[in-house]
Amino acid sequence: MLLPALWAGLLVCIGAIAAPAAFATLAPPEAGRVVARLFAQEAYLSLVMAIALFLMERGVARVDAEAGKGSIFSANLVLLLATLFCTVAGYFALQPMLAAARAGQAGMSFAVLHGVSAGLFILKAALVCALAWRVAKPA
């Protein structure tokens, strides 16, 4: 299955190529808007990918469990649930907080929230890479 590898490639390209290139070539406010748009599109795509792969993997885990080759709750399902958590927490929960911090409203500082968001994105990328490796590994 190529979907996890394609997803991992997308995450690496956004985090290691597109975002740094935007900040290297554009003024910081404009680069921030471009990168924010990239991460917004990535977050929605990650939701779709995580849910689609979860449904596919759940079917595989069910067949394996019925054949006595494992549990219905596989390691791949755990990886997918973790990526889903990273997406929801890292984008959908933190983005409104980042916007409020950027506007100077009370709460955690922009730098702290940005660090947490970046950490969750890196963790998600690592989880998706692990999933791609597990799926590609011969049985």
Which key terms come to mind for this protein?
mainly alpha
Description of the structure:
- The chain is an all-alpha fold.
- It has one domain.
- It contains four helices and no strands.
- The mean pLDDT is 91.
Shape by Cα distribution: elongated
Number of helical elements: 4
Report the biggest beta sheet as strand number plus sense, adding barrel if it closes: none
Distance between the termini: 13 Å
Oligomer state of the chains in this structure: single chain
What fraction, in percent, of the residue positions are helical?
Answer: over 70%
* Alpha-beta content class: mainly alpha
The mean pLDDT is 91
List how many beta strands DSSP finds. Answer: 0
Uncertain parts: none
- Along the chain, the helix and strand elements come as HHHH
- The total domain count is 1
Strand content: under 5%
Radius of gyration: 17 Å
Can you lay out the helices and strands and say which pair or pack?
Elements (H helix, E strand, L loop, with lengths): L2 H23 L2 H39 L8 H28 L7 H27 L3
Helix pairs in contact: 1-2, 1-4, 2-3, 3-4
Please provide a brief summary of the model.
The protein has 139 residues and is an all-alpha fold. It has 4 helices and no strands. The longest helix is centred in the middle third of the chain and has 39 residues, at 28-66.
